[in-house]
Fold this sequence. Notes:
It contains 6 helices and 5 strands.
Amino acid sequence: MPKTPTTDTAAAKPAKATRKTAKPADDEITRMVKVAVNALEDIKGKDITVIDVAHLTSMFDRMIIVTGDSNRQVKSLADNVQEKLKAAGAEIIGMEGADVGEWVLVDAGSLVIHCMQPVIRGHYNLEELWGAAQSVRQAAGTRE
């Protein structure tokens, strides 16, 4: 029977910090946002919006929302951003929704990317939900 470590031995070893618990520096997040936006532009993503949500949640720091015109384009946007972020050294935690292609979420830790078809994006209106509606309208020079 293999010998199991005693409580004293296990307690003596400090726990390793994982990447999920360590928050990347702001310049690293900014670099990953640039990589992601460039990857989305490569596949002709529309209405790319970057939202700083660090003050709203501890789960992630930035959210990117992009529109694709078809299931195929939405899947391609998600695949390309995942590939480019991996190549840049980001850890991809997961990807959801690629089987349908109406809304694909790419989780890259401090950065979450939502690739959506126009109808889905309009329905869920994540910009307003996360408090970016005012800044988006201001950037466009429009009023409520």
